[in-house]
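User: Can you fold this complex?
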Amino acid sequence: MDFSGARIIITGGLGFIGSNLAVRLVEAGADVTLVDSLIPEYGGNLWNIEPIKERVRVNISDVRDEHSMKYLIQGQDYLFNLAGQTSHIDSMNNPYPDLEINAKAQLSILEACRKHNPSVKLVFASTRQLYGAPQYLPVDEKHPLAPVDVNGINKMAGEWYHLVYNNVYGIRSSVLRLTNTYGPGMRVKDARQTFLGVWIRNIITGEPLLVFGDGRQIRDFNYVDDVVEAMLLTAFSEEADGEIFNLGADDPINLKDAATLLVDVAGRGESRVVPFPADRKAIDIGDYYADYRKIRAKLSWTPKTGLREGFAKTLQFYEQNGRHYWGDRHE
Amino acid sequence: MDFSGARIIITGGLGFIGSNLAVRLVEAGADVTLVDSLIPEYGGNLWNIEPIKERVRVNISDVRDEHSMKYLIQGQDYLFNLAGQTSHIDSMNNPYPDLEINAKAQLSILEACRKHNPSVKLVFASTRQLYGAPQYLPVDEKHPLAPVDVNGINKMAGEWYHLVYNNVYGIRSSVLRLTNTYGPGMRVKDARQTFLGVWIRNIITGEPLLVFGDGRQIRDFNYVDDVVEAMLLTAFSEEADGEIFNLGADDPINLKDAATLLVDVAGRGESRVVPFPADRKAIDIGDYYADYRKIRAKLSWTPKTGLREGFAKTLQFYEQNGRHYWGDRHE
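Assistant: Here's the predicted assembly.
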């Protein structure tokens, strides 16, 4: 994979995964533009690009801003389409911003590509949330889609716009259905991105880790570097055009054990199993872990970082950088 | 089923299926409000309710008008949610109105129910288009969803909002995935609703019926009275809450044979097999016919009107009423 000199735009580029991807691409010699709205409730944080801030173009705009996107997209070789509203609870409390960002803005990005840059290659960050409560495990890409909340529905629409524009117009698009991603740069201020962020913060600030339900819900976790690698492979491979790939891990774990492992790695902290808050219970999906054999077979991707190593790296990052993430303002 | 005195609102109520449903409900003694935007490119036509025009309330407004919907929905016992943008080609040429109508407006209707009338029962008119090109035949409700155009994606979102609001908030909703519906009141001015409308018109105006491709694509057809019956059964049955049902028929037929049958029933006309227009070819789904055993088993629904009888009734209607449907204005 040679991204040297490639013109690359990343929506959600100041967010967790987008910024890690940006670092990797800048190091590979790419010409990188980051688009981010820096809406405080979402994932963007300028500190995420501190190591590369002199070597990327940052454009503060919202993917709902059609005109901005139309302009920025022109002349780009790759579009990593990562901007999204990620909070399931927020999507239920007020479904409209989720619809505008996760569905409508995706359509307008694709329309902009169709009209102004039909040769761009897109990688869309989708989510396991589309599968809803698994009908079997592990969940492969053929598993029926049955989202359990508004966020899952809108992400489903956003994903399928990419596939239809690939199939009908030849706008090359690949879809990655991400599972729980964690690592440096993740949102830790609250659970809007993942509960794991709050756990990490609580370890460091000395608060207990709350595990909802009975703690036996199984999940799989990917360290962010592995997800970045999957995105690059997907972008680079023609074989990935028009395809959907699950990401996943070899070490699914239940939430109680994950909390215990995190405490163990940190050498401090405590976890508590508490009842589900009603609003979360209503959209809980039970156990989930992915079958990721398709991307392994087609693109030779496998996750390299196990939970213990990933937790250690993540804890270390937030011990050093925490104040840039759980303060009230973006620094 | 007793709908006598029931307060009923039908979105898309001046459209093809909505108006047939209205006639049936008015005859059953229901208190019926029809909501329709009468956008000329869509299905609404005041002539559709000529026989009952003194016995229904007609409210001209668009489902995208949140305020109108919020007001109208209050105090209703049943909401038959039939308003939609149905043209696949239009959804590709300009995807935004399709998104606003088929997805966003559905969300705002459900939000209105949640806030102002949580005890209403909804029946949502969805479409076989969500399945895309069938992976097996006949297609049952477990078939993966893989829409091939923007219209299918947005209808998928609209459908799932209903299911999530049922599951999370207890807003009782049922989904019917309709296949090709035909009969009196269908749009015949163009193929925005179904190609069959254009065929019917062409028979009467003496133009040839055009069959795209090789004419071997199999379809199933439901006469509108059968679809109305399915909607009433679904509305009335608690067992249908939160469920998705396919409609279908026992006499699937390929398009060439359907055209020949129509010519035979009419006693005039001719059909021609012509190449697919490029824009239609790109979103064609190949053969389709539904497995409707679920609704037969749960709600005892079966289609009663065969193609020959249905075609004859439809032709008769348009011979007598055609001028109200293919003129330039709504009468």
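The domain at 7-185+221-251+289-306 of chain B is CATH 3.40.50.720 (Rossmann fold). Chain B has a mean pLDDT of 95.
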